[in-house]
Design goal:
two-stranded antiparallel sheet; 7 helices; flat
Length: about 150
């Protein structure tokens, strides 16, 4: 009976795909994941090219993180409300009573988050410095006409 030795990928990496996805979701770099797995960066990229399930775990983890950050940025940009629940214990006529107080608080939209969102999502309208080629072209035309008259 011949037994074929399993590769390091099969024994050490494949069983940890869910963990690898979580690491990527948590923002770990490829280098940090390599260290956690005990593999080189070259091996990491070779596995990524060779094993689709490895590549998908990395991609899926990054996508989840990106979506969560996008959602948090959007929420911060537009503002939101939340409920704050507190318990108060009061002594009324020698008896302790617990009161639960629920307050809805509002967090206004964050202007910095709004600007960041607009510059990245609608950059044509929200650039810091707009380049207007038409103005330069018109200026050159006017200068050329003036030069002809001289």
């Amino acid at each position: 009976m011949i037994t074929i030795a399993k590769s390091k990928y099969e024994t050490d990496v494949k069983p940890r795909l869910v963990e690898i996805e979580a690491w990527k979701r948590d923002g770990l770099t490829d280098e940090q994941i390599c260290k956690n797995l005990g593999i080189s960066v070259d091996t990491f990229y070779r596995y990524k090219a060779k094993y689709s399930e490895f590549s998908e775990a990395i991609k899926k983890g990054k996508e989840v993180a990106d979506i969560e950050v996008e959602n948090a940025l959007f929420k911060r940009a537009i503002g939101y409300t939340y409920k704050e629940i507190t318990k108060e214990v009061k002594d009324i006529d020698g008896k302790k009573s617990t009161f639960i107080k629920e307050i809805t608080k509002a967090v206004p939209g964050d202007v910095a988050a709004q600007i960041f969102w607009l510059k990245n999502r609608k950059s044509n309208n929200w650039k810091d410095k707009r380049e207007n080629e038409n103005d330069d072209t018109k200026l050159i035309e006017v200068l050329d006409k003036l030069e002809e008259k001289l």
